[in-house]
Design brief:
The protein is built from 6 helices and 2 strands. It has about 170 residues and is mainly alpha-helical. A two-stranded antiparallel ribbon has the order 1-2. About 10% of the residues have low confidence.
C-alpha cells in the first residue's frame, strides 16, 4: 500500500565525483593559502598601525585591530567570491554544500579569527585566554581537516562549506 509519498532519494555521489564542485582541498594547500592570506593581512595591519596614532602592534588595541582586519578580510572575500588572494594563488575556492555563499556562512566559518578582539579588554588574563582559544581553534581545525574524508574542518561543517580545488 502506498501513501502517495515519493520514494526516498538516494544520496548523491561523493563530493569528489561531482563535476560542479570538484575535488576537495587537503590540509597542505589550505595551510599554504592561509599563510599567504596571513601575510597580506599582516602587511595591511602594519600599514594601519603605522598610520593610526597611539596603536602599537603588540598592545591590546593592536591585537584587537589585527583580529578585526583578519575577520573582515575573510568574511568579505569568502562571503562574496569564495576566494581570497591566497586561495586564488593555490587554485582553491570555498563552496557551499548546498545553497549559496553568504556573509553569514563566511562569518560562521571564520568567527574564531576574531577571538583576538577579546585581547582589547583591559584584563591581561582575557588576552592570554583569547590567544590560547585561537591556538586551540587552529589546531582543532587542522586535526579535523586531516581526519575528514572530505577534508572538511569543524569550521567548514559549521558553515556547511567545502574548500575545493579549481584547477
Amino acid at each position: 500500500m502506498s501513501d502517495g509519498a515519493p520514494p526516498p532519494e538516494e544520496p548523491g555521489p561523493p563530493v569528489e565525483d561531482r563535476n560542479d564542485i570538484g575535488a576537495t582541498a587537503g590540509l597542505g594547500s589550505r595551510f599554504g593559502a592561509r599563510l599567504i592570506d596571513g601575510l597580506i593581512v599582516g602587511v595591511g595591519v602594519a600599514i594601519l598601525v603605522f598610520v593610526l596614532p597611539g596603536i602599537e602592534p603588540r598592545d591590546p588595541l593592536g591585537n584587537a585591530l589585527s583580529s578585526v582586519v583578519y575577520l573582515t578580510y575573510f568574511v568579505c572575500l569568502e562571503g562574496t567570491t569564495g576566494v581570497t588572494p591566497g586561495k586564488r594563488l593555490l587554485n582553491l575556492r570555498v563552496v557551499p554544500e548546498a545553497g549559496t555563499l553568504s556573509f553569514e556562512r563566511a562569518f560562521r566559518r571564520n568567527w574564531w579569527g576574531g577571538l583576538g578582539i577579546l585581547g582589547a579588554v583591559p584584563l591581561a588574563i582575557l588576552g592570554v585566554l583569547a590567544l590560547l582559544a585561537s591556538l586551540v581553534a587552529v589546531i582543532s581545525i587542522a586535526i579535523t581537516i586531516a581526519r575528514d574524508d572530505r577534508d572538511q574542518g569543524w569550521h567548514d561543517d559549521l558553515a556547511s562549506t567545502l574548500v575545493v580545488r579549481t584547477a
